[in-house]
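Team,

Forwarding the record for the chain on the shared tracking sheet. I've put the sequence and predicted structure together so nobody has to dig through attachments.
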Amino acid sequence: MTERLANILISAFPDMLAAGFKITIPLTVLSFVFGMVLALLLAIVQVANVKVLKQISQVYIWFFRGTPLLVQLFIIYFGLPSVGIVLPAFPAAVIAFGMNVAAYNAEAIRAAILAVPVGQTEAAYLIGLTYPKLMIRIVLPQAFPIAFPSLFNNLISLLKDTSLASCITIVELMATAKQIVGRTYESLALYIEAAIIYLIFSTVLTWVQGFLEKRLGWGTKDVKPKRRSGLKAGI
């Protein structure tokens, strides 16, 4: 490694790391939180077996799991202005990433809900709980630990997917690397350095996941799914 290249890498590292903390991580967190709220609604609608809403939910999941995330990002940022909806780059990215991860999280949550023993649901109805109270007090507290590993894996994937935000002018970690490459022409070394920073972030998240699973026992329950015909929501 030449002295020039070493100096470039040393000076580039704090810039890329700062972009990661200022943009990449907040973008990941906000998108995931938005996606979790949407995923809960999608999962509950499917389990509740409300016909029209269930079909809408299934079409939503089918579309967002079946089309590239980059295309979804372009539709929201570049496509919506043609119908009069103009969004700044960062909110557009949050919406696109959140809607995408919601489709995957919804399936993880739905499977976890179906894994909660049916007898508990029946008992809750017998004591007069409404559907919303049943979900909040009985089902979701048991389903979340089951879904936790899948949800956290989706979070780690989302962190890496945020690199696509550079395509819509957001100067996050990847865009910062591109800018430095444009000035120095050291593409291989700098992109490897960017990959290492993503790897560091992902490794920290993986450690957090392992810690929570071990400490709280989330994702370690041996619960066998029981077939449900659907729970009619009393809404």
